[in-house]
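Please fill in the sequence for the structure shown.

STRUCTURE ENCODING:
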């Protein structure tokens, strides 16, 4: 009797695992669910590579001289410098909401600390032109900006 009781308990416990939602749902991935609830969305949430334009980085092995790459306002369409923080992380795409523009348009953002640039959609934001901006998660990652940082970026119009 002492040997049968523990074996029965183990057998019932294993059989009941499927009845416990926390144990039977170990493969659930809530970050893949769509906004409406139960159904899982596709895992590929990034835009296609054909729709994303990223400025080229210099070749690491090349022996080039350092040039002054600071933009001039008349030639490059520099709108200004703004302090940007992480915007709505659930909103897809490459964009910046900034008070430097009054109408939606295409442009680019440059992070002077890394020298990286990314083409973005410029979205108007209410407020003074000296106010801060919100930068998309994808743009912050391409610019190599820490996600918790308040980054000073240069905004250009195309």
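FILLED IN BY: designer on duty
SEQUENCE:
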């Amino acid at each position: 009797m002492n040997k049968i009781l523990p074996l029965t308990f183990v057998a019932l416990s294993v059989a009941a695992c499927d009845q416990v939602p926390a144990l039977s749902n170990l493969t659930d991935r809530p970050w893949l669910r769509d906004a409406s609830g139960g159904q899982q969305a596709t895992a590929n949430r990034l835009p296609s590579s054909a729709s994303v334009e990223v400025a080229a980085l210099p070749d690491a092995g090349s022996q080039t001289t350092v040039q002054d790459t600071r933009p001039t306002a008349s030639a490059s369409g520099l709108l200004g410098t703004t302090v940007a923080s992480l915007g709505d992380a659930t909103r897809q795409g490459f964009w910046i909401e900034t008070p430097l523009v009054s109408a939606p348009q295409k442009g680019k953002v440059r992070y002077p600390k890394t020298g990286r640039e990314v083409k973005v959609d410029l979205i108007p934001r209410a407020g003074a032109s000296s106010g801060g901006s919100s930068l998309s998660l994808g743009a912050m990652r391409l610019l190599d900006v820490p996600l918790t940082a308040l980054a000073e970026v240069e905004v250009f119009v195309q």
